[in-house]
Amino acid sequence: MNPERSLLLVGATDETVAKAKQLGLHVLLLQHPTKVNAEQERLADRVEVVDYTRWDLVRPIAERLWQAPGFSAATSITEPGLENAARINDLFALGGTGHEVTRRFRDKAVMRAHLDDVRAQLLHRRTDLDDFGQRCGYPFVVKPTDATASIGVHRLDGPADADPVWAEVRRLSGTRTDRVSTLMLLQDFLMEEYIDGPEYSVESFSSAGRHVVIAVTEKFTDPAHFAELGHAVPARLGAAVDTWIRAAVVAFLDRLGLKDGVCHTEIRVGAHGPRVIESHNRIAGDAITDLVHSVYGIDTVKLALAAPFGLAEELPDRPMGRGGAAVRSVVGRAGDVVESVDGVAEAEALPDVLAVRISAKPGETVRPLRDNWDRLGLVAVTGDDTGAAIRRGAELIGGVVRITVKDPDGRPGLAEAAPVSDRTVIPA
């Protein structure tokens, strides 16, 4: 095994390990006991089963692997693995993104402090909610400092919301994220101003401090909660606003000190222009990587893995896209019970379908829609343009992918595509 072509991968999906091997890399995988499987053991050159979120456990294994067989890069593109991959970079002076910069992305309070943002503050006690509302006004948002998928995010529209939100913060603090992963511990919560305006995500790749915005993705949410209901590429924007968003993200990455790697940044365009909501130095979730690959021909997973070895393609300043692609989420009414799931294989076989991911299982009760993990699944599709892809995704849900449900009185029904706004172009 050649150390110069060996990658220490901190946490991964089957797809990530497979793509690393496709690049001709030797893979040393640190995998959590709850995530390891036979496919990863088959693909990776070595698998070390460890709770990779714990540095006290990861460090001695990394030191042993550094001695033999050796490696020249360490990375993670999964949220819980980012910080310890960064610590490994620092420990062996590998040149990848270090822990100080990674922490700015991982901890939303650290990010706001680094940006000198006076309209954000850590939540310590119940009265902080009242004080923040009086100082910054309503509405405002309370969210965990280092969670994902909109878990534990609340909007306060007035003083009356403070008691129930504080009760929920107390309930969640010190617990692990349920329904998706036990790898992330909810601890601190942040208060920050609410930006009223359409939301987008920006997929970028940086190399030696040069930031390329690959795609601006349109994001659909519901004003009653923060669950993501869909995504579309490319975002339907006027040229001036598109340029404005791209410039804001590049300036943000510079301020946070990111030099290399992929990044997924969430941004809202409010009355005073684009404002970064949060950012992650990893790939996007929710099949956004599939949308970007379809439209731009750029595989951000492979970019992230190839970059430390000098194998990443050099991107143009502004990649040109072709056609459109969209993710539509599948949702049901709270309290209904899932009866059956059909049509997944049929949908996956269609030429315009990129991915079908259904989490709903027969016998499960549909939960109230609060965050991404309360959805029943998603489909990702292509189209001639963004609007066509959005419409095609809705056609597949209920038409091909059918999740039958029964309400508490036993009446049958079908899960549906989550509704999305019918905006066309945000003008300059």
TrEMBL record:
<keyword id="KW-0067">ATP-binding</keyword>
<dbReference type="InterPro" id="IPR052032">
    <property type="entry name" value="ATP-dep_AA_Ligase"/>
</dbReference>
<keyword id="KW-0547">Nucleotide-binding</keyword>
<dbReference type="GO" id="GO:0005524">
    <property type="term" value="F:ATP binding"/>
</dbReference>
<protein>
    <recommendedName>
        <fullName>ATP-grasp domain-containing protein</fullName>
    </recommendedName>
</protein>
<dbReference type="Pfam" id="PF13535">
    <property type="entry name" value="ATP-grasp_4"/>
</dbReference>
<feature type="domain" description="ATP-grasp">
    <location>
        <begin position="107"/>
        <end position="309"/>
    </location>
</feature>
<dbReference type="InterPro" id="IPR040570">
    <property type="entry name" value="LAL_C2"/>
</dbReference>
<dbReference type="GO" id="GO:0046872">
    <property type="term" value="F:metal ion binding"/>
</dbReference>
<dbReference type="Pfam" id="PF18603">
    <property type="entry name" value="LAL_C2"/>
</dbReference>
<dbReference type="InterPro" id="IPR013815">
    <property type="entry name" value="ATP_grasp_subdomain_1"/>
</dbReference>
<dbReference type="InterPro" id="IPR011761">
    <property type="entry name" value="ATP-grasp"/>
</dbReference>
<dbReference type="GO" id="GO:0016874">
    <property type="term" value="F:ligase activity"/>
</dbReference>
<keyword id="KW-0436">Ligase</keyword>
